[in-house]
């Protein structure tokens, strides 16, 4: 009721303004036979859900309002309109860019008005939070069909647009020197910067990608191997088989030691055991605190942890320590793309 009152009060204000400018209209007499004539539209550009006001004559018998780019109809309430004033909202499904609004009355007479729909790109999800040069990433959102450029924010590094439609945009990532970046995406309505941040694997400290990184050694106390069973970006991941009933760990020995305070994030993927969720402690044996995570069964899960819990001392050992599998069950997990990111 409150929103209706606010809208009603706005209509009264509009009526007063139109009357003051010499335009008289009546809500009692509506002439549906008049040919629609538009003298003014305000605003002449707007985003979806914004209100548009049209003044003129012959506006009481309007049957349809169509945004011609994609033939998108605009809903409106005839009770709010008079012979001299028409009020409606830009549909949230309208396509962006310059176009025509076609207003047609019950006799079939039409008037065409130039208008620009502001439909900036929106991104709700990304298929991958990290990339190497050449990685293809699918962005999901809206108003992506007329995207012309995707650039890593703060750089001149431009991604290649592979395909696009209204809801999805597939890009191929460029070579870059930055560790992580948001995306600047441009379409006919303008440019936005995504909330999602992508991490460059190429520019991270790689503890494991296709194999253990330089100066990183497998000191695990579990059955650990490099496997091609599953992987995230490449073709290899760590496979760890944990025996039932005991606490075991994937343990990475670092030689030389690592100063985690030089990095912002500790990131990795884990594919859970096919049959059970498991609890795992992520920690350094050299100090700091423990981060306990739950690894869901049978899916890849991405973890992005601040490095505060392993900072302030030289790191010689980094562990993924599993809480002993229940009963007689063993557990098999895969870990991939273990990174320290600046």
TrEMBL record:
SUPFAM superfamilies: E set domains (SSF81296), Galactose-binding domain-like (SSF49785)
CDD domains associated with the record: IPT
Gene3D superfamilies per record: Galactose-binding lectin, Immunoglobulins
Record-annotated IPT/TIG domain positions: 121-195
PROSITE patterns from the UniProt entry: PROKAR_LIPOPROTEIN
Pfam families, per the entry: TIG
Residue ranges that the Swiss-Prot or TrEMBL entry lists as coiled coil: none
Identification of the protein by name: IPT/TIG domain-containing protein
Organism per entry: Thermoflavifilum thermophilum
């Amino acid at each position: 009721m409150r929103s209706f009152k606010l809208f009603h009060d706005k209509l009264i204000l509009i009526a007063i303004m139109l009357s003051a400018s010499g335009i008289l209209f009546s809500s009692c007499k509506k002439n549906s036979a008049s040919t629609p004539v538009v003298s003014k539209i305000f605003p002449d550009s707007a985003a979806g859900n914004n209100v548009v006001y049209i003044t003129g004559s012959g506006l009481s018998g309007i049957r349809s309002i169509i945004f011609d780019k994609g033939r998108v109809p605009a809903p409106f309430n005839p009770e709010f309109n008079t012979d001299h004033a028409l009020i409606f909202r830009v549909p949230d499904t309208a396509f962006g860019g310059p176009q025509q609004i076609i207003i047609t009355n019950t006799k079939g007479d039409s008037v065409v008005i130039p208008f620009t729909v502001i439909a900036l790109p929106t991104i709700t999800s990304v298929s991958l939070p990290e990339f190497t040069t050449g990685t293809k990433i699918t962005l999901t959102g809206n108003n992506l069909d007329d995207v012309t450029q995707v650039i890593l924010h703060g750089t001149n590094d431009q991604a290649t647009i592979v395909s696009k439609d209204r809801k999805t945009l597939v890009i191929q990532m460029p070579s870059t020197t930055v560790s992580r970046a948001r995306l600047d995406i441009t379409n006919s309505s303008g440019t936005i910067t995504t909330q999602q941040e992508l991490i460059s694997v190429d520019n991270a400290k790689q503890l494991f990608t296709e194999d253990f990184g330089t100066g990183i050694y497998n000191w695990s106390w579990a059955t650990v191997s490099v496997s091609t069973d599953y992987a995230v970006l490449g073709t290899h991941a760590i496979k760890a088989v944990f025996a039932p009933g005991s606490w075991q760990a994937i343990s990475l020995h670092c030689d030389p030691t690592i100063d985690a305070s030089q990095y912002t994030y500790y990131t990795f993927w884990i594919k859970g055991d096919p049959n059970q969720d498991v609890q795992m402690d992520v920690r350094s044996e050299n100090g700091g605190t423990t981060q306990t995570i739950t690894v869901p069964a049978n899916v890849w899960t991405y973890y992005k942890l601040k490095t505060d819990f392993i900072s302030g001392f030289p790191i010689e050992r980094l562990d993924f320590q599993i809480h002993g599998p229940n009963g007689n069950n063993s557990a098999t997990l895969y870990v991939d793309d273990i990174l320290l990111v600046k």
